[in-house]
UniProtKB/TrEMBL annotation, chain A:
<dbReference type="InterPro" id="IPR021149">
    <property type="entry name" value="OligosaccharylTrfase_OST3/OST6"/>
</dbReference>
<keyword id="KW-0472">Membrane</keyword>
<keyword id="KW-0812">Transmembrane</keyword>
<dbReference type="InterPro" id="IPR042416">
    <property type="entry name" value="OSTC"/>
</dbReference>
<keyword id="KW-1133">Transmembrane helix</keyword>
<dbReference type="Pfam" id="PF04756">
    <property type="entry name" value="OST3_OST6"/>
</dbReference>
<feature type="transmembrane region" description="Helical">
    <location>
        <begin position="124"/>
        <end position="145"/>
    </location>
</feature>
<protein>
    <recommendedName>
        <fullName>Oligosaccharyltransferase complex subunit</fullName>
    </recommendedName>
</protein>
<feature type="transmembrane region" description="Helical">
    <location>
        <begin position="30"/>
        <end position="53"/>
    </location>
</feature>
From TrEMBL, chain B:
<comment type="subunit">
    <text>Component of the oligosaccharyltransferase (OST) complex.</text>
</comment>
<feature type="domain" description="Oligosaccharyl transferase STT3 N-terminal">
    <location>
        <begin position="50"/>
        <end position="446"/>
    </location>
</feature>
<feature type="transmembrane region" description="Helical">
    <location>
        <begin position="265"/>
        <end position="284"/>
    </location>
</feature>
<keyword id="KW-0325">Glycoprotein</keyword>
<keyword id="KW-0256">Endoplasmic reticulum</keyword>
<keyword id="KW-0460">Magnesium</keyword>
<dbReference type="GO" id="GO:0004579">
    <property type="term" value="F:dolichyl-diphosphooligosaccharide-protein glycotransferase activity"/>
</dbReference>
<feature type="transmembrane region" description="Helical">
    <location>
        <begin position="385"/>
        <end position="404"/>
    </location>
</feature>
<comment type="similarity">
    <text>Belongs to the STT3 family.</text>
</comment>
Amino acid sequence: MDPLLHLLKIVPYSFLRVPRTRLKLPSFSLPSAMTVYALVLLTYFMVVSGFVYDVIVEPPGIGSTQDRVTGAVRPVVFLPGRVNGQYIIEGLSSGFMFVLGGIGIVFMDLALDRNRAKSVKVSFASAGISSVVIAYVMSMLFLRIKIPAYLS
Amino acid sequence: MGGKTEPANGESNQTPMVAQVSMKPDLFNFSLKTLKLKVKQQELLIRVGILCLVYVLAFIIRLFSVLRYESMIHEFDPYFNYRTTVFLTEKGFYEFWNWFDSESWYPLGRIIGGTLYPGLMVTAALIYWVLRFLRFAVHIREVCVLTAPFFASNTTLVAYFFGKEIWGSGAGLVASALIAICPGYISRSVAGSYDNEGVAIFALLLTFYLFVKAVKTGSLAWALASAFAYFYMVSAWGGYVFIINLIPLYVMVLLITGRNSMRLYVAYNCMYILGMLLAMQIRFVGFQHVQSGEHMAAMFMFFLMQVVYFLDWVKHMLNDSKLFQAFLRITVTCAVGVGALALGVGMASGYISPWTGRFYSLLDPTYAKDHIPIIASVSEHQPTAWSSFMFDYHILLFLFPAGLYFCFKRLLDATIFIVMYGLTSMYFAGVMVRLILVATPAVCLISAIAVSATIRNLTSLIRTKNKAVHTGSSKGSTSAKASSKASLDQSMPFQRNGAIALLLGAFYLLSRYAIHCTWVTSEAYSSPSIVLSARGAHGGRVIFDDYREAYFWLQQNTPPDAKVMSWWDYGYQITAMGNRTVIVDNNTWNNTHIATVGRAMSSYEDEAYEIMRSLDVDYVLVVFGGVTGYSSDDINKFLWMVRIGGGVFPVIKEPDYLVNGEYRVDKGAAPKMLNCLMYKLSYYRFGELTTEYGKPPGLANSLSSFLEEDVWDVPANIFNCLVPASDAIAGVCPRDTLANIMYCFRYDRARGVEIGNKDVKLEHLEEAYTTTNWIVRIYKVKPPSLSALEPLVSNKTFAEADETASSYAKRLIVGPSIIGLMSGNRAAQ
C-alpha cells in the first residue's frame, strides 16, 4: 500500500491544487412537534377515508340507482351490501368525522391550559365538546346506514 | 391480641374495668385495622384485580363459536396448522423438522419442514405436553382451538406493561382493557382460528415492549430478552419483516432528532446481531437477513450506528474542531461510497434479492393488481374502506389522533416509538385489510394514552376544586389570596359539574365501545367458515355442515391413494379431514401448478380431461352455492381461475368468458362460459332439482317475498302445461305458483339469475357425491377405456329431453322448508 500512497501523493497532488469552495451543506432545522402533528393528522385523514382503496379500486364518487317506478336516477351515497367497500365521498365524509372527533378531544385538552384568557378557554371547551358529540353521533349514523343490521 | 390487654392489667389496679370494656372495641378496631390497607396496597389490589378481570374477559369473549357450534378448527389455513401439529405430537420434533409431504401438490410434494413457521405448532405442542405431564388427558384439537384466546389474554398483560412504560400505569390498564375486546384483534384470534397471527401478535408486542425497555434502561439483559422475543416472532409469522424494518426506522428517527445515546447503541446492536443469528435457525427464513432486500434496512442502520459512534468517539478524542471537520468529511464520503458500492455489487450479482411481491405491494399498492393475480385475488388483501376501520375500531378512531397529540406533547424515546409504530401500521392497515390486525396494538395503546390523559385532566378538575375550597376556608389570610380564590370559586361550580358530566360522557363512550365489540364478535367474527348458518323463515338458525360431510365421504368412500383436484382454497381441508392427496392447496407456492388447475377448470371438457389424466386426478371437487345462496362458491371465484390460468397459459383469455365486459351465467353468457368444465360441474343436474316436502296450496303464504322476482320469461307452452287449471284458482295467485316453479327450475340463488345452459351432459366425469344442500359436489374422473363407450351405454340425457313439460312439472314438488329457508336467507343477505 505504501508505495501507492507515495505515488498518489506525488502524481496528482503535486500539480493539482484543491480549490477552496464555499459550498456548504444546507442545514435544516427540524420542524416543531406541532407542525409534524398537523401533517400526521392530514395523513391520518387520508388513510382512514380509504384513500388507498379509492386509488386502487377506483369506485365512483357517488353511486346511483334507478327508481323502478318513475325511472329517475337517484344518487346512493353509501355502497350497500359489503363492509369493505365504499364510494369516494362517503369515505371522505366519514374520515372527516373521525378527525373531527379527535380534534374535539384535543380542544378539550387545550381548554385546560392555564395561560390563556378565560373566554378562549371556554370557547375551546365548548368547541371540543360539541365536536366530539357531533362526530360520535354522525359516525354512528353513518355506520347504521351502511350496515342496516347493526346492533340487532 | 392478648398482649395488648396485659400492660393494661399490669399497669394499675384502677383500670381493670376500663381495660375490660376497652377489650371489645380493641378487638373490633384491630380486625378492621388489619383489613384496612395502605393506599399503595389498595392501588395494587385494584390494579391486580383489573388485570385478572381483563385476562378472563379476553379469553371468554372469544368463545362464541365454541358455544354455538362445537370445538372445531375454523377456516382453511388452520387445518394445515392442525395437521402439522398432530404430526409433531405423534412423531416428534425431528420428524417434524425434516418432513417431506407427498400428499399435497401432487406430483411435486412439499417440503413442509422447510416451508413453514414452526412457532405456533411448537407452542401448541408444548402446552399439550405440559398438560399431559400434569395428567390432564386433553385432545390436541382442544389445545389447538384454545391456543389463540390464551395468547390473547397474555397479550393484554404485555399491553399493560407496555402502556406503563410509555405513559403510566393508568394508561397501561386502559390499554389492556381496550386490546382485550378490540375486534381488529379478535377477528384473527377467536377460539378455533388456529393461525399464526394468534401467537404472532403476542410475540410482536412482547418484542416491541422489551426493545423499548432496553432503550430506556440501556441494560444488556433487556436487549437480550428482546432478541429472544424477536426469535419467537420470526418462528411464528412472516410478518416479522415489519419489526425488522420498524426498529431501524425508529433508530434513524432517534438519531435525526438528536436523541442518540449509549443506551440506544447497546439496545440496537445487541438486538440486531443476536436476533439475526437466532432468526437464521428457522429453515424457512434461512439466510434472508443478509440476502433479502427487505432486511437490508436493518443492516444499513447497523453500519450507520457504528460510523456515528466512531465519529463521536474520534470527536471526543480529538479536541480540535477543524481537524475533526476534515476527518468527518473524509469518513462520511468513504462510508457512503463503500456502502453504495457494496449494495450495488450485491444487487447486481443477485446475492441481495429485491423486495418480494407480497411486501412490495405494500409499498406500491397498485403492483399486485397488474402483476400478481394470486395476491390480488385474496379478499383479505384488498385495500381498506372506511367502514372496515369503523367496524374494527369504533371509538378508537377518535381517540387515536387525540392520543397522538398527547404523545407529541410529551416526546420521549418511548412515545416516539409508539407514534412511529402507530403511523406505519395505520398506513399498512389502509393498504391491506388483513393488516388491521398489526395496527391494533398500536391503536389501542395510543387510544389508551388519550383516555388516560383526558380522564386525568377531568378528575384533576374535580379534585383541585375541592382543595381550593378547603384551603380557602381554612386559611382565609390575605385579602389577595381570598379574592383570587373567590374569583376561582365563582367559575368552579360550573366547571366541576361540567367535569363530572364529561366524565360520565367518557364512560358512556367506553361502554358503547364494549357493546359494539361484543356485537361484532358475536355476529361477524365467530363463524367457522367450514360450517355455514342462516336464519330460517321463522327466525330459527339452520346449519349447513356440507363441507365436513363431503370430506368425510371422501375419507370413507374413496381409495386411500386417490388424488383430488379442486381449487386451491380447499386443499388444506381436504388433506386434513379427507386425508387424500390434493393437487394444489392454500400454500400457493407454485403458480404454474395452480394455473394448470385453473386451465383445467376453464377449458372445455375434452381438454380438461387431458389435463386431468396427465395429473392422475381421480376426483374433482367443486363448491356450488346456487341452491342455498352461498356466495363464496367456485362460480363466483371463477374469474380468478381464468386470470391465473391465463397468466401462464395464454390460450385462456378472459374476454372469452365475459359478455360486454360483464360476467354472466344466464342465457346471455358467453358460449365458452356455458361449456367450460366448472360450469358443467356446478350445474350438472341442477335443472332437475326436486324436493319432497309439503304441498302446493300451503306455499302461497311463504312465497310473498317472491313477488319481487323478475324471472317471468317462461315459454308459453311450458307455462300452459305447468299451471293446471285447478291450482290457478282458489286464492292462489298464478304468479305465486309460477314463482314457486321458476324458483326451483334452475334459478341460481347465489347469482340471482336463471342459468343459461339447462341440460348439462358430462362425458368424461360422473357424479360421485353431492352433499345435502348441494354445496360441495364431487365427481369421479372416468378411466379412458369407458368414456369412448359412454354415448352407447347411458341414454338418460336423451330420455330427459323427451319428457313433456307437464310430467316434468309433476315431479316438481317444492317444500315450504326449502322456500322458507331461502327467503330467510335472502333476508339475511
